């Protein structure tokens, strides 16, 4: 398996229309800056538009979401507010991500509703939303199964089922739940299955759930320079943290995800970074959904920060412009390594992955190299002669942006432009360039503001109104 994200240079302007996509969808791909379909998109979209079942295998970051979402959106009957498509994903974070992507890709389709059906939050809101009616739903197998069982989820009009990251779903033990869900769906549906690997269990799943599926695999296309540079650093276990600091100091202005195998390591690394004044946050399974969302939104919005994560918590994170993945502890299974480093170098961006290995004989490095077919180059860190303390000091200091949490979102009809308006108007007084990324969720929004101006901006938001309504604004993070 190779982990390069792109296989061909982009020479054509935009070939999405030649795949048979409708103008309102082609337009979004242009607005998003997609210059051409990726290989998996070019292969999958025409087949899916034709209504075929499909089994697709391609690497992380190759654009699978748009590959299934664009045809699914095109095949929707928007006039019927009934559930026509269901996407199953292995984790809540992935579901949230896929739903966000589908909404973005469908933003020119008037009235489109896409629900999220995931665990970790009360089912009641989801049942109510289902009762009001929606076109599409994205969720995790357990919760979807429960909602089907209780009758809240009516699948009579369902025409498209997508199993995204099917291998991860099986790894996580969701096989039986998926089977229960599939049994309740109409048999004449279209079934789409995407997976990074195709072990026997996936093949069995495909033959059980699909009919004459088109097979698409974009693995073997000759690749140009890999988009992700992979390094290893040899360090005794006791010097791990020092090595991490030296790695981060090589690229002090870049965002990074630092993966650990254990929750305790996550806690320890985060504490030590924060203790030294370095902007860092932790993401592990012990955080509740609200705090996980908050950490992720802040990470997406603030331009320089480090996220320390376990695999379960970090899976499915998609952060635009993520520069660096550090494996603080190497995983036992090489497949997990591939998933971790797939967080960087998405699509056209390039990324770096640095793994801390305990020595030249680290067996985990060898099994990773066997799986990916790439050798990890050795990165030597001691060239600068600067002390560990100096390096840490250099990394410290606030991120240039800070996030403000606003207590209103899409359900309150708050849009990014309204937030910009409130911050820059007479009442707000901020210059447009002091405002960074804005993320509007259902009931909350996040806006990144230049670090030193954030407290004042929050105070003004608290005093003022957005579209005539008052909301609570809180500065989060350091
Ligand atoms: P996968 O599911 O295969 O891991 P995603 O669907 O999450 O990959 O896409 C990875 C990234 O690539 C996303 O940020 C997405 O916006 C971007 N992307 C998707 N299609 C294209 C394209 N045709 N051109 C450029 N970027 C793309
Ligand atoms: Mg995906």
Strand fraction equals 15-25%
- Please provide the count of β strands: 18
Helical/strand content category: alpha/beta
Number of helices, counting only DSSP H or I runs of 4 residues or more: 18
- Spatially, the strands of the biggest sheet line up as 3-4-2-5-6-1-7
Ligands in the structure? adenosine-5'-diphosphate, magnesium ion
Radius of gyration: 23 Å
Tell me what you see in this structure.
The protein is 37% helix and 18% strand. The chain is α/β, with parallel strands linked by helices. The strands form three sheets. A seven-stranded parallel beta sheet has the order 3-4-2-5-6-1-7, sandwiched between helices. It has a seven-stranded parallel beta sheet with strand order 10-11-9-12-13-8-14, sandwiched between helices. Helix 6 runs parallel beside helix 8. The N terminus is likely disordered. The structure holds adenosine-5'-diphosphate and magnesium ion. The site of magnesium ion has 3 residues, from helix 3.
Topology overview:
Elements: H1 23-31, H2 39-49, E1 54-57, H3 64-74, E2 85-88, H4 92-105, E3 114-117, H5 123-132, E4 136-139, H6 141-149, E5 160-163, H7 166-171, H8 175-183, E6 190-195, H9 200-209, E7 214-217, E8 228-234, H10 240-250, E9 256-259, H11 263-275, E10 280-283, H12 289-301, E11 306-309, H13 311-314, E12 324-327, H14 334-341, E13 351-357, H15 363-372, E14 377-378, H16 388-395, E15 401-406, H17 416-424, E16 435-440, E17 445-450, H18 454-463, E18 473-476
Parallel strand pairs: 1-6, 1-7, 2-4, 2-5, 3-4, 5-6, 8-13, 8-14, 9-11, 9-12, 10-11, 12-13
Antiparallel strand pairs: 15-17, 15-18, 16-17
Helix pairs in contact: 2-3, 3-4, 6-8, 10-16, 14-15
Adenosine-5'-diphosphate binds at residues 34, 37-38, 41, 60-66, 318, 320, 346-348.
């Amino acid at each position: 398996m190779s982990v390069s994200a792109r296989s061909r240079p982009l020479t054509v302007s935009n070939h999405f229309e030649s795949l048979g996509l409708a103008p309102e969808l082609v337009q979004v791909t242009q607005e998003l800056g997609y210059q051409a379909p990726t290989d998996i998109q070019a292969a999958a979209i025409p087949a899916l538009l034709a209504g075929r079942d499909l089994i697709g295998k391609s690497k992380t970051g190759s654009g699978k979401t748009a590959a299934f979402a664009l045809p699914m959106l095109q095949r929707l009957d928007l006039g019927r507010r009934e559930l026509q498509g269901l996407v199953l994903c292995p984790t809540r974070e992935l579901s949230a991500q896929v739903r966000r992507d589908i909404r973005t890709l469908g933003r020119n389709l008037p009235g489109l509703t896409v629900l999220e059906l995931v665990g970790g939050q009360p089912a009641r809101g989801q049942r109510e939303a289902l009762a009001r009616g929606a076109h599409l739903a994205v969720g995790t197998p357990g919760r979807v199964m429960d909602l089907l069982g209780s009758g809240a989820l009516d699948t009579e009009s369902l025409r498209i089922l997508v199993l995204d990251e099917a291998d991860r779903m099986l790894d996580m033990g969701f096989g039986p739940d998926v089977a229960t869900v599939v049994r309740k769906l109409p048999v004449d549906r279209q079934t789409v299955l995407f997976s990074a690997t195709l072990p026997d269990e996936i093949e069995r799943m495909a033959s059980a759930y699909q009919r004459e599926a088109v097979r698409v695999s974009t693995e073997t296309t000759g690749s140009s320079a890999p988009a992700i540079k992979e390094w290893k650093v040899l360090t005794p276990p006791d010097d791990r943290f020092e090595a991490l600091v030296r790695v981060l100091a090589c690229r002090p202005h870049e965002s990074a995800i630092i993966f650990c195998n254990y929750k305790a390591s996550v806690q320890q690394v985060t504490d030590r970074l924060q203790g030294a004044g370095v902007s860092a946050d932790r993401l592990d399974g012990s955080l509740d959904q609200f705090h996980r969302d908050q950490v992720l939104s802040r990470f997406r919005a603030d331009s320089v920060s480090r996220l320390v994560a376990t695999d379960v918590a970090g899976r499915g994170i998609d952060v635009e412009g993520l520069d660096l993945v550090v494996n603080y502890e190497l995983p036992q299974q090489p497949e997990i390594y591939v998933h971790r480093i797939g967080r960087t170098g998405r699509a056209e961006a390039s990324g770096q992955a640095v793994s801390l290995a305990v020595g030249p004989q680290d067996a985990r490095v060898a099994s990773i190299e066997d799986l990916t077919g790439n050798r990890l180059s050795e990165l030597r860190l001691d060239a600068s002669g600067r002390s560990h303390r100096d390096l840490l000091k250099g990394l410290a200091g606030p991120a240039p942006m800070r996030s403000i949490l606003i207590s209103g979102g899409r359900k309150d009809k708050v849009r990014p432009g309204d937030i910009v308006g409130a911050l820059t108007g007479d009442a707000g007084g901020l210059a447009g360039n002091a405002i960074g990324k804005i993320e509007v969720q259902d009931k909350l929004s996040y806006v990144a503001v230049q670090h030193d101006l954030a407290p004042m901006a929050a105070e003004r938001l608290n005093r003022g109104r957005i579209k005539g309504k008052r909301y609570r604004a809180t500065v989060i993070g350091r």
